[in-house]
Design goal:
alpha+beta, N-terminal domain of MutM-like DNA repair proteins, Helicase, Ruva Protein, domain 3, 2 domains, 5-stranded antiparallel β-sheet, 4-stranded antiparallel β-sheet, 11 strands, 24% strand, elongated, DNA-binding
DNA sequence: CGTTGCGCCTGTTAGC
DNA sequence: TGCTAACAGGCGCAAC
């Protein structure tokens, strides 16, 4: 379940391998691997050169020598892989891009929530991504503005953290970790939280994701693995997510799991009170 | 209009 | 032991 740090790790790996490569063939092997909003079939990029790879939140895009971008979302299980041509196909191989130098860039995705698409340039971002808010590491990120937006919502903080139109890049795991770290109950109403407390959550989000980014960058010395999207999560460093019934590392109270918006939320009932 | 809920998908796990 | 059902979750859209 790649969130911002994992997607950024993939982006860095891709940038190392693919900048300057030309796309010689495009093979779409599964219809769901192309987003319906794509302005054209992916085969359209045949012959294009990859100039740059960018990211906003969990959205990646390849800048080409074309008037549009190749956008990618990893969904739940999407991975990029670099292989030499002729390497055996993965079971869940969805898209094959044959590059120059006998290399292939492959999009592999077991659960098919991930996709690729072509999207027109809208300034620096693809049109498809314009509705997605800047993430917390983006120079465009407006902290006081985001705090205001949170407070104008009438919902629970956990839901707001997952709303990619307020602030992008946070998924279920880092949402729980941010709330644990800032000692805020996931069901706190955003319109009742003080600006200071929302600020505290955002600071925690930044810290938690920075740490994951460093781990993703250092845990493997092979860029190849990073490109594979296997940087993954470092479960040993998670304090709340997936730790139901385990002791809170701050106070030893058992971590609880509740459901918010059909998603599990893990929190410490003693450190994080309503 | 803003918020909530559902469906998409498949490997793994829990329960009968 | 073997099968079925529930579960996991990002996103977009439908419904309230």
């Amino acid at each position: 379940m790649p969130e911002l740090p994992e997607v950024e790790t993939v982006r860095r790996g891709l940038a190392q391998w693919c900048i300057g490569s030309s796309i010689q063939e495009v093979h779409v092997l599964h219809p769901r691997a192309t987003n319906l909003r794509s302005i054209a079939p992916l085969e359209e990029i045949t012959g294009a050169t990859i100039e740059r790879i960018s990211r906003r939140g969990k959205f990646l895009w390849f800048e080409l020598d074309r008037a549009y971008f190749l956008v990618a979302h990893l969904g739940m299980s999407g991975q990029f892989r670099i292989h030499s041509t002729g390497a055996p196909d993965e079971k869940h191989l969805r898209i094959r891009l044959v590059l120059n130098d006998h290399q292939e860039l492959r999009f592999v995705d077991q659960r098919t929530f991930g996709w690729l698409a072509l999207s027109t340039r809208e300034g620096t971002a693809p049109e498809m991504v314009t509705g997605i808010a800047p993430d917390i590491f983006d120079p465009l990120f407006d902290r006081p503005g985001v705090v205001k937006k949170f407070r104008m919502k009438r919902t629970e903080i956990k839901r707001a953290l997952l709303d990619q139109h307020l602030m992008s890049g946070v998924g279920n795991i880092y949402a729980d970790e941010s709330l644990w770290r800032s000692k805020i109950h996931p069901q706190s109403r955003t319109d009742e939280l003080s600006p200071q407390k929302i600020e505290r959550v955002l600071t925690a989000t930044e810290a938690v994701m920075s740490k994951a980014l460093v781990e993703g960058g250092t845990s493997f010395d092979s860029l190849y693995i990073n490109v594979n999207g296997e940087s993954g999560y470092f479960e040993h460093s998670l304090e709340a997510y997936g730790r139901e019934h385990e002791p809170c590392s701050r106070c030893a109270t058992q971590i609880r799991r509740i459901v918010i918006g059909a998603r599990s939320s893990h929190f410490c009932p003693r450190c994080q009170r309503l």
